[in-house]
Design a protein that fits this description.
single chain; Rna Polymerase Sigma Factor, Chain: A; Arc Repressor Mutant, subunit A; mainly alpha
């Protein structure tokens, strides 16, 4: 059964139909939540909160919209709230912990590169982080990101450009040392 039919059933009170929607989108929502929480348990908690909010607000969903976009929007808002509540200071030492000069050959593994980039993404302002993650990790189009973030396509383009520019600054010291990031 397609999303629209399941959604119509869920709106009319069919809990099993909503459960099928949860099963269909659970992994995507957890993956997106993990990008922000960096902790699987927290990502699961965020996902649970997303589906609770979605269920409680089913009647406000516009059928002409895509449910994936709606769920991504709820996920982003929930993740922002999570990050604000957490008020965890950015652990700048985690990005500095890797110091290419400690390694005479200056060879870093792909995992170390990936970790370094992810730590740098964590240091971005939330709005830039959201736009970049939705584009680069979730592979959403600019239009879809604009719908999720409830902003214009131009704003999305600007946020992604600014995020990429800031990332370049954050990883520049490693590039200058000859690391190919």
């Amino acid at each position: 059964m397609d999303d629209e039919k399941l959604l119509v059933k869920a709106i009319s009170g069919d809990k099993e139909a909503f459960g099928q929607l949860v099963d269909r989108y659970k992994d995507k929502i957890i993956r997106l939540a993990f990008r922000f929480s960096r902790n699987y348990r927290d990502a699961e908690d965020i996902a649970q909160e997303v589906f609770i909010r979605a269920y409680l607000n089913l009647r406000s969903f516009k059928i002409e919209s895509k449910i994936s976009t709606w769920l991504y929007r709820i996920t982003c808002n929930t993740a922002i709230n999570y990050m604000r509540k957490r008020k965890k200071a950015v652990d700048y030492d985690r990005i500095r912990r890797f110091n290419p000069s400690d390694n005479a050959s200056h060879n870093i593994t792909e995992k170390e590169k990936k970790d370094m980039i992810e730590k740098a993404i964590e240091r971005l302002p939330v709005k830039l982080q959201l736009a970049l993650v939705l584009r680069e990790y979730e592979d959403l189009s600019y239009k879809e990101i604009a719908e999720v973030l409830n902003c214009s396509i131009g704003t999305v383009e600007s946020r992604i450009k600014r995020a990429r520019d800031k990332l370049k600054v954050l990883i520049q010291p490693y590039i200058e040392r000859g690391e190919n990031i």
